[in-house]
Specification:
single chain, Spore Coat Polysaccharide Biosynthesis Protein SpsA, Chain A, nine-stranded mixed beta sheet, about 35% helix, globular
């Protein structure tokens, strides 16, 4: 049997400072059947020079204006040919060279359509300094109502799910990843598995946590995500979701 291919999509806009480490963490993977797709939003800060430096190793590169990060991710998914799709942000990097190998092995052995793992938030300059540790867990129906969600940078999906249930809803500017995971797991109840190890390290300073205004907006959009999927939700769910983030510091 042919081994599954994996598409890794990296959306970037004006992030020349950290893009190379994301690219190199993909290049370092031991799994051989990877296509890395770069979707650039029309950067002007030197990002294109970084991309050009590694150009020979990319399956596809697109550089053009977009409507935000989720529009860029959707462009990547539309161009992906792999059996499995992962999203690696330009601020993030894989925790070890065996991440993709572990993901594929788990999906094949368990016969599931989605996997995710744990995530570490690290310093923006000193990436050996762990600021928060997001320890996830297996999914059970109803856990989203208790504030649970998996870390999206560690979320790997069989490409057929995007074809069946749709892509990111980019009218949500901050929480489209939350909505997609809610839709796949809570609404559609796809088969899934948690990998109990750190798969991705993320530099602190993500869009949803960059300011109080963004935190408020992200949680308003999370509320909207439930309504979009016609799922019952209470204010307690959003409060518990905030509480889950506090636990990451313990």
């Amino acid at each position: 049997m042919d081994q599954p291919t994996v598409s890794i999509i990296t959306a970037v806009f004006n992030n020349a400072r950290t893009l190379a480490s994301a690219i190199e963490s993909v290049r370092a993977q031991t799994y051989p059947a990877i296509e890395h797709i770069i979707i650039d939003g029309g950067s002007t800060d030197g990002t294109l020079e970084v991309i050009e430096r590694y150009r020979a190793g990319f399956a596809k590169v697109v550089s053009e204006p977009d409507r935000g990060i989720y529009d860029a991710m959707n462009k990547g998914i539309a161009r992906a040919t792999g059996d499995i799709v992962g999203i690696l942000n330009s601020d993030d990097f894989y925790a070890s060279p065996r991440v993709i190998e572990t993901v594929v092995r788990t999906m094949e052995e368990k016969g599931v359509d989605v996997v995710w793992g744990d995530l570490e938030y690290v310093g923006s300059e000193d990436t050996t300094r762990v600021v928060r540790h997001w320890r996830s867990s297996p999914y059970a129906h109803g856990k989203f109502r208790r504030g649970w969600m998996p870390p999206h940078p560690t979320f790997f999906v069989r490409r057929s799910l995007y074809e069946r249930y749709g892509h990111f809803r980019d009218e949500l500017r901050i929480a489209a990843d939350y909505e997609l995971m809610l839709r796949f797991l809570e609404k559609e109840r796809v088969s899934s598995c948690h990998i109990p190890e750190v798969l991705v390290r993320m530099r602190v300073g993500g869009a949803s946590n960059r300011s109080v205004a963004n935190i408020i907006r992200a949680n308003r959009e999370a509320w909207r995500a439930w309504k979009m999927n016609e799922l019952p939700v209470s204010p307690l769910t959003i409060i518990l979701k905030l509480g889950q983030k506090l636990l990451q510091f313990i």
